[in-house]
């Protein structure tokens, strides 16, 4: 029974009804040509009747909020649902359903994940095959977004003809041994807690140091983010907005402007956010700060949380897109250099602390009226090869993320073949019509292209 | 913050993943003639956007499993879902969906209820209007089956033209004052617990007395039920089977055979169960014992648990249907007479104790290898007038009930206009094909009719 790591513990204890701590993935498939009417029903039945027990981490259940326990009583009914969309069944209605599901708390009495198959989605155009979707939802204490994407990817095939019979939750993952190694059996409960707490001290020192270290103009310390409408107290209401953009266009832009693709993505988000805030008469005078997670994982283990982050200056106060992208790129380079001085355990706890308001206030004793960042913009790896589920082609995949009190919007992206897939998760009650950002992102890509060509 | 009553407490603490303690109701509607395509979507939107906060008991949330607390943070997203059925969308697929939902635990972090709107169900026959359903699920600690039916009934109209704008969870109920009276504010926590425990002693005495009092052959004591395949350890898998039978036929039978309609219902179930067990080579030599709940409610309050019960001898060992119905009727009369000697509080606790194995073993210290009864057969009042939801006619209503370890089948009935609506809840893993009982019930009605005519 391994203890929860500090990050997992934080993810678990921070959870409230208005702040569910699960991540999600929406996977959109096209029915194979000449598929039978019951194609999706057969997939669904496969998942309902699979005999293989869930693998790690899908078999982990909370025990008194302190320990993970291997669950011996798997009941697929607690986790799986197969529905159709009410009419008209467009992508809009799909997102409405997924948004509501993403608003719901996972049940802590079960291993904390759910899998929904949603059928009957209209074709892209008349004559095309009908579509169906898989929405997968898993608690952030079990996996981070990167791992979640990896897990689902493992359950799909790169071949259009291969048959995959095992549900995603029964695939073998390699995380257990890693986690066991992190919490060796010959250490006592109190010893482990003591060690974990010890790593927090230097982290808190580092955070405090940030307050004074402001000589470098590109250096963003953790208390510098301006107040903004993105940073309100949230309700449980979630809206997921998704769109696919052409990856080759973004890559070409990066090359022409001599920055990384990730910098381009941040610049596109920055421009769109600037216009969104301008439209709402809510653009802060100081630049927005984005929390950009970076994976610390060195192996390909699919579960658990091993993330660190960089705080990126989005330069939303600058009108000139050229200046904006320069500032963003410089701030990213600077941020990445800062983690060399810390051990991996310290970096993990640093993330845990800085991840949320609650963390900062609780552990570092800093001021609740300052905030570390305005939103999280996260880029998780998808797949560069087309994926299939028993012959049904994966059209698109969209990540859905966690919102925290004071963090009412999250932008998570994934690459899939030649697309950059955007999933914007927002608290619909405090940031209505967040889907407008998708249009603004498309416009910003055009703006950057016109600059790069000059 | 009222304390949980002993019954509520038992319902809450007995809950495990394989033994969820919620009741449900499935309400099947026909679209009004000339209804717009978005009729159900509009209903759904009404419920999602209603401004009225939930009324008692829908606003009660558990606090440390001991107290009820009024919940101030209602989030409709946590409770409401609108879906369509996968194709083909027949009643069979509706029951499949509802069965899976009925298998899932409610989330104890929220007030414990859920409301599902399910659209796109095929018409009864070609040319008839399409159908939709409402599945309502609420924890047994908040209401019993009778109250649940009353609550939903209140949210519907007897008029085909009346518009009902309030969701079922926002209707005013009168239960709060009753519950407050039950737990007066000037009593301390420990006082209340002491008093509640005091009523349990005479109840346990009564239970123990039952073991020796066997002079009256119609008297069924609580430890007399035979072992039977209905009484196995259950899993979380539930199957709900439903059917409507003609109420006038059952009433005519009752009159001709000089018994109550309730006796006829029990006789019909008894005959069907006998044949079901014969088909499975599993008919016990001794008669099955049914636990038949009786409402103790004297007002029309819609919430809370005020049930007592009679243990009915189903005479399944008798081949002659005439003899069976005589024995059943006599055993029901006898059972009803036994509660005169007890106070209402004692009767309520008697129910609580006898309701479940866990209760018996825990509180009365009796033998775990004996069982009190083989199954629950419960008759909850429905409505004798047709009901409408914004013009959509309620075609049928079916109750879905709780199963307990050792109680793998439950039969609950409700009357609706001229129909007797049967809802059979069974653990599908240990009692597969329980839906066959519906056919056997229809056959048994024919058998009794042929007897009554001779």
Protein architecture, described:
Two copies of one chain form a homodimer. The first copy, chain A, has 454 residues and is of the alpha+beta class. The first copy, chain A, contains twelve helices and 14 strands. Chain A has helices spanning 6-13, 39-49, 91-103, 145-154, 175-182, 189-212, 247-257, 261-279, 321-337, 344-355, 357-364, 436-453, and strands at 22-30, 60-63, 67-70, 80-84, 113-121, 131-139, 238-246, 289-295, 307-313, 375-383, 388-389, 392-400, 409-416, 419-427. In chain A, the strands form three sheets. A six-stranded mixed beta sheet of chain A has the order 4-5-6-1-12-11, with helices on both faces. In chain A, α6 crosses α10, α7 (247-257) crosses α12 (436-453) and α10 (344-355) packs across α11. Chain A is globular and about 60 Å long. Residues 174-194, 211-215, 298-306 and 354-368 of chain A have low confidence and may be disordered. Chain A binds chain B through residues 17-18, 37, 40-41, 44, 73, 75, 77-78, 80-87, 89, 97, 100, 103-105, 107-110, 119-120, 235-238, and chain B through 17-18, 37, 40-41, 44, 73, 75, 77-78, 80-87, 89, 97, 100, 103-105, 107-110, 119-120, 235-238.
């Amino acid at each position: 029974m391994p203890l929860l790591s500090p990050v997992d513990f934080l993810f678990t204890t921070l959870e409230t009804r208005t702040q569910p701590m699960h991540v999600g993935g929406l996977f959109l498939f096209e029915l194979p040509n000449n598929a039978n009417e019951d194609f999706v029903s057969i997939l669904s039945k496969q998942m309902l009747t699979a005999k293989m027990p869930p693998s790690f981490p899908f078999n982990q259940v909370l025990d008194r909020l302190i320990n993970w326990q291997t669950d011996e009583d798997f009941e697929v009914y607690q986790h799986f649902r197969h529905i159709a969309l009410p009419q008209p069944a467009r992508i809009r209605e799909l997102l409405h359903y997924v948004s509501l599901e993403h608003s719901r708390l996972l049940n802590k009495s079960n291993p904390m994940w759910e899998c929904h198959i949603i059928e009957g989605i209209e074709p892209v155009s008349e004559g095309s095959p009908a579509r169906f979707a898989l929405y997968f939802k898993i608690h952030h204490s079990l996996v981070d977004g990167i791992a979640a994407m990896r897990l689902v990817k493992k359950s799909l095939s790169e071949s259009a003809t291969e048959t995959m019979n095992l549900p995603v939750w029964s695939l073998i993952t390699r995380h257990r041994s890693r986690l066991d190694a992190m919490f060796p059996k010959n250490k006592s409960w109190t010893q482990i807690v003591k060690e974990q707490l010890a790593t927090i001290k230097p982290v808190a020192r580092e955070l405090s140091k940030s307050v004074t270290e402001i000589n470098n103009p590109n250096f963003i310390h953790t208390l510098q983010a301006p107040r903004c409408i993105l940073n309100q107290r949230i309700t449980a209401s979630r809206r997921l907005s998704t769109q696919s953009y052409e990856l080759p266009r973004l890559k070409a832009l990066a090359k022409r402007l001599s920055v990384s693709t990730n910098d381009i993505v941040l610049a596109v988000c920055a421009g769109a956010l600037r216009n969104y805030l301008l439209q709402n008469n809510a653009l802060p005078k100081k630049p927005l700060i984005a929390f950009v997670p970076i994976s610390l994982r060195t192996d390909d283990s699919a579960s658990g949380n091993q993330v660190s982050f960089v705080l990126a200056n989005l330069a939303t106060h600058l009108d000139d897109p050229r200046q904006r992208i320069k500032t963003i790129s410089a701030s990213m380079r600077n941020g990445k250099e800062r983690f060399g001085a810390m051990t991996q355990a310290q970096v993990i706890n640093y993330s845990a602390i800085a991840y949320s308001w609650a963390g900062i206030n609780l552990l570092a004793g800093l001021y609740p009226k300052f905030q570390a960042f305005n939103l999280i913009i996260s880029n998780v790896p998808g797949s560069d090869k087309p994926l299939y589920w028993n012959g049904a082609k994966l059209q698109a995949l969209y990540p859905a993320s966690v919102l925290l009190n004071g963090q009412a919007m999250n932008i998570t992206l994934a690459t899939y073949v030649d697309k950059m897939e955007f999933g914007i998760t927002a608290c619909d009650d405090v940031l209505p019509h967040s889907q407008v950002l998708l249009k603004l992102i498309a416009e910003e890509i055009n703006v950057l292209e016109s600059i790069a060509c000059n």
